[in-house]
Amino acid sequence: MQRDEHEKRNERPLQPNALRTSKPKKREERHSAARTKALSPQSSLKQVERRQRRVRLQRRKKWLPFLFGLLILSILVALFLTHAPFFRIQSVRVEGNTVLTDREVMNALGDVDSNIFTFPTKRWEERLHSLEGIEEVEFSRELPNRLVVRIKENFVLGVFESAGRPYYVDEQGKITDRFVPEKNRIKPIALEKEVEKIGIGENYFSDARQLAFLSTLQSTQLVEGVTKVRFEKSQGIVIMYNDIVIRFGEPNDIIHKLTDLAAVLREIENKGVKAQEII
């Protein structure tokens, strides 16, 4: 009896933490150390890179069907534009020609039965450059089936002499020594003017209005009776028309002045008046 009471006094109640053994605690510490060792900066970067690659691949996979559909649509549109019958050239408009006729340009161009988007630009340019007087060619489209041909002519408009040799003035107002009478189609007008510098490729006119006057005069019927045009320092223009001296004045309001001049010359001719000078 006394022994049992002594044993009871020596017994102490167990605390909750006392139920835990030291071995699991040590095992947990080892695992924690292993995880810390595994998550080094280098391995963390690799994991981030792998995740980023996976994200990029997933995004690409999402876009693939859309891109594939867009490619198919583009192919179908291209086939439609290049094979649809109403995109074949049905008419041609010529612009920029003052000497050459539309029919001449069309004949040089040849067969234009082609698609408005795929016509052979280089080949057609070569055809037109073979025509006399054409310097530049440009094509444009008016959908669905009209081709526009813009040309830049460059015929010789005038001729003058310097140091005993002839020089020519083209439609750009440049001095040139190239002149083939049988191909020029325009009879150059004899010109008289003081030129500061004479050289191939140099500008003959110091005033753009003078070039405009010469070009306009060449497009009228008056040119048939013009024997010489003199450009004076005062910007005045003197025209020798058969035996009549015409003081045209400054090259402004050119079309209106030439129209009035043509009317005056017709009246002189109809009345049989022998005029010597028109002011």
Report on this structure.
With 279 residues, this protein is an alpha/beta fold. It has helices spanning 2-10, 22-38, 41-83, 102-109, 121-129, 181-184, 208-218, 254-271; strands spanning 91-95, 134-142, 146-153, 156-162, 165-170, 175-176, 189-192, 226-231, 237-241, 244-249, 277-278. The chain has an 8-stranded mixed β-sheet with strand order 6-5-4-7-8-9-10-11. Strands 1-3-2 form a 3-stranded mixed β-sheet, with helices on one face. The longest helix is centred in the N-terminal third of the chain and has 43 residues, at 41-83. The radius of gyration is 47 Å and the shape is elongated. Mean pLDDT is 83; it is low at 14-22.
Measured distance between first and last alpha carbons: 163 Å
Order of helices and strands: HHHEHHEEEEEHEHEEEHE
Q: Say how many strands there are.
A: 11
Question: Which structural class do the helices and strands define?
Answer: alpha/beta
Strand order of the largest sheet: 6-5-4-7-8-9-10-11
Count of helices?
A: 8
Largest sheet: 8 strands, mixed
- Helix residue percentage: 40-55%
Q: Report the radius of gyration as a whole number of Å.
A: 47 Å
Q: Average pLDDT, to the nearest integer?
A: 83
Low-confidence stretches: 14-22
Question: What overall form do the CA principal axes indicate?
Answer: elongated
Strand content: 15-25%
